[in-house]
Amino acid sequence: MTQDRATIMPLGDSALLVRFSDTLDDEANRRAVSFAHALENDAIEHVLDVVPSLVSVLVRYDPRKANPTRLAGELSLRLRANPVVGDNHLHRIDVHFGGEDGPDLEDVASKLDLSTQAFVEHHNAASLRVLTTGFAPGFVYCGFHPEHMVVPRRASVRPLVTAGSILFAAGQTAIAATDIPTGWHVIGRTSFRNFDPARMPPTSLRVGDLVEFVSAG
C-alpha cells in the first residue's frame, strides 16, 4: 500500500514497515521521524512498539488482537494527516578532537583538502539532527553535513572503538555509546554517554533532536 510517497508493507507476522524512500535523504528522514512521533503521541490500539529508522518506521503489533489490513488502513489515514514537525531539544556535546582521541582526524581533513582546525570549524559550524538511533545500544546517527564535508567510510574496520568515540563518514557524525567495531573514521571523543541501562529511558537523545558539537580543546 502506498500513500503520499510512503509504502506500507508487512514484515513478518507481527509488524508493518512504513517506508518513505528507498534512499537516505533529509526529507524522507524528517517524515519518518515525524510519523513515529505522531504514532507515539496518539497510540493505535494493539500496537506494541514504534521504531523509527533512517527512512522508515517499524510498527509492531499484537497478532492475536490486531488485524494487519485494518492497521495498514489506519496508518494510511495517519499518513495523510501527518505534517513534518519541527526539531526537538538542542543538546550541546563537548568533543576532544584529534590526537589519541581522534586518530583519523588528520586523514579525514586531508581528504577534504582542509587543515585539521578548518575541518573542526566546518564540522561544528551548524547543529545536526539525530537521524536515528540503533546498531548498538545508544548509538546515534547525526546529519547531514553539506556535500563538501562528505567522505566514505574507512577501507578497513577497526575491531574496537571505545564508548564516547565521535565517528565521521557519509555526511554524518555518529556517537558511540558502547564499545563497538566500526568502519567509520574516529575523529574525537566525548565524555557524554547516550546509554545508561539503569536510566529510564536508557538514552538521552531522541530522533529529531538537535546536536551541537563543540570543541573542548
Commentary on this structure:
The protein is an alpha+beta fold. It folds into two domains: about 1-80, Gyrase A, domain 2; about 90-215, Beta Barrel (Cyclophilin), CATH 2.40.100.10. Helix content is about 20%, strand content about 30%. The protein is built from four helices and 14 strands. It has helices at about 25-40, 70-80, 105-110, 115-125; strands at about 1-5, 5-10, 15-20, 45-50, 55-60, 90-95, 130-135, 140-145, 160, 165-170, 170-175, 180, 185-190, 210-215. The strands form three sheets. Strands 6-13-10-11-8-7-14 form a seven-stranded mixed barrel. The mean pLDDT is about 95.
Provide the spatial order of strands within the biggest beta sheet.
Answer: 6-13-10-11-8-7-14
Report the span from N to C terminus. Answer: 51 Å
CATH class descriptor of the largest domain: Mainly Beta
Strand content: 25-35%
How many extended strands? 14
Order of helices and strands: EEEHEEHEHHEEEEEEEE
Please estimate the helix content: 10-25%
Using only C-alpha atoms, the radius of gyration works out to 19 Å
Q: What is the CATH architecture assignment of the largest domain?
A: Beta Barrel
Number of domains: 2
Q: What name does CATH use for the topology of the largest domain? A: Cyclophilin
* 3D shape: elongated
Mean pLDDT: 93
Enumerate how many helices there are, as a single number.
Answer: 4
Unreliably modeled segments: none
